[in-house]
Amino acid sequence: MRRLLAPLAIVLLVAAVVIGLTQAGGDAERPTERPFDLQAALKRLQGAPEPLAGLHAQANELLGGGRKAFDARLADLRGHPVVVNKWASWCGPCRAEFPAFQKLAVDRGRQIAFVGVNGSDKRPSAESFLRSHPVPFPSYEDPHEDIARAIDAPSNYPITVFLDERGKMAYIHQGGYVSAQALAADIDRYLGA
Hints:
By secondary structure, the protein is an alpha/beta fold. Helix content is 48%, strand content 16%. It contains eight helices and six strands. Strands 1-4-3-2-5-6 form a six-stranded mixed β-sheet, sandwiched between helices. Helix 5 crosses helix 8. The radius of gyration is 22 Å and the shape is globular. 33% of the residues are buried. Mean pLDDT is 89; it is low at 21-31.
């Protein structure tokens, strides 16, 4: 009987600790994140210089035109650093990192260009994703990854490519960003902006 008491006491102690921790964290009011307000974001971005204002005017749009249209946009953006995010609607890490891009595209979108590249998606899936995860910049369709190859983005998702103000690749981040602070740190480190 005594041999059973020691393990039983340990089990009861562990159970009490687990229940206590669960109750302490479970009922506490946690701040809820408000959904991203695209219209408020666009108001904050008003007065951005061209061609950044042109990006904001096409906020949350899925643009066609392929590599030719994308290259023309990059040419227009010369003189501004560019952050290109390659995403897909089916990509869990892409979904997880979109709040970081929402925040930074507003906080830094008057100095830095943000552009999305959607690959490996059917248009309805990509549009549905953008309705639930709006961003204050457009994304280009890239079903065959022609744009991704042109900017040396690997085939995995998500990928973020940093281009300096001359349009030269400064850095490629593979995988999702865990926070807006991590994305901001890379912007500061590789674009000096």
